[in-house]
Amino acid sequence: MLQHLRAWHRRRLLRRHGIEPGLWSAALDDFPLAGELAPAEQQQLWEVASLFLHRKAVEGGGGLEVTPGMAVSVAIQAALPLLHLDPHYLDGWHAVILHPGTFVAHHAEVDEAGVEHVGERELAGEAWDRGPLVLAWEDARPDHPRADEGNVVIHETAHKIDAANGVANGFPPLRPDMDPHRWTAAFEAAWADLEAADEAGHPAMDTYALTDPAEFFAVACEYFFVLPAELKAAYPAVYDQLCRFFAQDPLSRRAPEHHPGHRADQRR
Questions:
Q1: Residue 248 falls inside a structural domain
Q2: Domains held by the chain: number
Q3: Disulfide: which of 32, 49, 50, 127 matches 79 by Cβ 3.0-4.6 Å?
Q4: Name one GO cellular component term (predicted).
Q5: Residue 94 domain-assigned?
Q6: Domain that holds residue 171
Q7: What is the 3-class SS of the chain, one letter each residue?
């Protein structure tokens, strides 16, 4: 009974708040990764993106005026990793804030002696703990010149997914049929390999991942959706775990000749 009520409520929300066809068609045209999905998955992506916009306000920061098209563009990108995940992964936060370009974030860190240091960083994206998802529109827009090398919206959405258990630590709430030991083993081995490869001067993945386990997960998710061949070649066990977690296999729907480049960027 509860499942039927949830399905009815979902249909009702989509009838009232579904993304308008013209806006959706434009968003699909601008986001090539969505074009790789089968028609049934594209329909599901529309549903997830529509519900995303129903639950999350997309607001402008730094004087940016957010248009409906911009909001839908963010939603379709965020919806890709959320495509087959339970809606509870979106719980605990309520807004996306778009800045025109990179923004300055202030962070406080406590050193081993207990002294607090406050610093500034220029970022293209940031996921606040139990707060908004903050993005630079110049990096989040679908026509970004390096959109085939990375995706800041997917990266920051991955942080929100990761934090669904209360803290972003590279270990999101896994599906019931997944083995947490295999997850840990895959990511720990990949971390050690990337560290060694970085020291040797030939890392197979953006070394921003080595910031901490949360960033490793977010960068791996970016590669999973945007550069799946590179991730599977370098860290097949991580790729397999992400396939199981997201219930998607991006490489299987990717044209063989599609081999985009490598990206390093400011994210958090």
A1: yes
A2: 1
A3: 49
A4: cytosol
A5: yes
A6: 17-253
A7: CHHHHHHHHHHHHHHHHCCCHHHHHHHHHHCHHHHCCCHHHHHHHHHHHHHHHHHCEEEECCCCCCCHHHHHHHHHHHHHHHCCCCHHHHCCCCEEEEECCCEEEEEEEECCCCCEEEEEEEECEEECCCCCEEEEHHHHCCCCCCCCCCCHHHHHHHHHHHHHHCCCCCCCCCCCCCCHHHHHHHHHHHHHHHHHHHHHCCCCCCHHHHHCHHHHHHHHHHHHHHCHHHHHHHCHHHHHHHHHHHCCCHHHHCCCCCCCCCCCCCCC
Any domain includes 268: no
Residue 249 has pLDDT above 70, yes or no: yes
CB 189 within 8 A of CB 237: yes
32 in a domain, yes or no?
Answer: yes
pLDDT digits (tens, 9 = 90+) for 119-168: 556 555 666 576 788 999 999 998 887 877 889 999 999 999 999 998 99
Tokens of 10: 């979902």
Count the neighbouring beta carbons within 10 Å of the beta carbon of residue 57. Answer: 13
Note the pLDDT tens digit of each residue in 89-118: 989 899 999 998 665 554 445 445 555 444
